[in-house]
Amino acid sequence: MDFDFTDDQQALREAVRRWVDKGFAFERRRTLAKAGGHSRAVWGELAELGLAGLAVPESQGGLGFGPVEAMLVNEELGRGLVHAPWTNAALAVPALLAAA
Question: From the DSSP assignment, how many helices (H) and strands (E) are in the chain?
């Protein structure tokens, strides 16, 4: 059994890591915290990366990735202390819609 990440999974992790390292430095987190913690701009940037459609099937315009890719994204967002409703919006909502 192979437990290594695929090339696509590694590329996803690196893309999110680069975004966090480049655009989510301490000063930005501090500014967001002072403003209440939420920002439409952060969600917009995550959507531009394609992360809003991570768990949405490709047949419906998403990336069609699964739980391993979601874990990789959550790990990188957590590493950068990114405060955004990504898990709720990008993972829970598509799962609920698929079940409906």
Answer: 6, 0
Cα 42 from Cα 99, distance rounded (Å): 28
Residues 6+ apart with CB under 8 A from 54: 62, 63, 65, 69, 70, 73, 90, 91
The full set of domains in the chain, from first to last, is 14-99 (1.10.540.10)
CA–CA separation, 84 vs 39, rounded Å? 8
* Res 8: pLDDT: 93
Q: Give 13-45 pLDDT, tens digit per residue.
A: 999 999 999 988 888 888 988 888 778 888 889
